[in-house]
Amino acid sequence: MGTAGVQIVSVSLGVLGLIGVIVCCAIPRWKVSSFTGSNIVTAVSNEEGLWTTCVVQSTGQQQCKKYDSLLVLASDLQAARAMTIISSMLCILSILMLFCGADFTTCIENEDAKPKISLVAGVGLLLAGLLVIIPVSWSAHNVVQNFNNPLVHSNSKMELGACIFVGWGAGVLLLLAGGLLCCFSRPKSGSSGGTAKYYSNSAASAPNKNYV
Questions:
Q1: Do 47 and 26 form a contact (C-beta atoms < 8 A)?
Q2: What is the pLDDT of residues 127-168, one digit of tens each?
Q3: Integer Cα distance of 133 and 17 in angstroms
Q4: Which residue has the higher pLDDT, 207 or 29?
């Protein structure tokens, strides 16, 4: 596969990863109610996200409410707000840079600068993937820790929501896209910007003879 093919695949993976990050940030499915032990009331379930908390009834009705204060959120969700937003912005910027520096576009005519731009876009996608994997892993760790804590009442226990898995998938896609770009978008060895000139030494080495 040529460089242009790798860049097309990276763009596709980056767009899918961006969609996953946006879904993970917007939908309130980070934590869901756990129906274990003596908690047999399944008519109502709670769902928590980064921005709202929702109550879903068995009839399908859903009521959501924004958090009263930022301080109400747990530390992992507070960090997840900032990291997911930064990840989505960095992902958008990297994809735009990749479009400009890709071989299948003519936005930039300098062929020596295109690999460098693609390399920077690859690093940006790698950082975007890490910024989405860290908060979802942190939140998943806290949910599992509280779920296995015997001091926490069964009615207060939560399980992993769908956004945790979506975030993991989006992070893996972004890491793959950034890794492919970093591996295949290397500057050409002969594109240092300078040209070497070679001169023949035969004329310079020959002594000047003056004939009278």
A1: no
A2: 999 999 999 999 999 988 888 877 777 777 888 889 999 999
A3: 11
A4: 29
CB 93 within 8 A of CB 138: no
* Whole-Å CA distances, 49 to 9, 94, 109, 129, 138: 31, 26, 45, 20, 14
Q: How far apart are the first and last CA of the chain?
A: 70
pTM for the model stands at: 0.79
3-state helix, strand, coil in the chain (%, to 5): 55, 10, 35
pLDDT digits (tens, 9 = 90+) for 37-66: 555 556 678 888 888 888 888 777 888 888
Give strand pairing partners of 45. 56
Number of alpha helices (DSSP H) and beta strands (DSSP E) in the chain: 5, 5
Q: How far apart are CA 198 and CA 195, in angstroms?
A: 10
- How far is C-alpha 60 from the chain's CA centre? 33
Find how far residue 165's CA is from the centre of its chain: 14
What distance in Å separates the CA atoms of residue 114 and residue 106, rounded to the nearest whole number? 10
What per-residue confidence (pLDDT) applies to 42?
61
Q: Give the C-alpha separation, 181 to 8, whole Å.
A: 10
Six token digits for residue 169:
């998938």
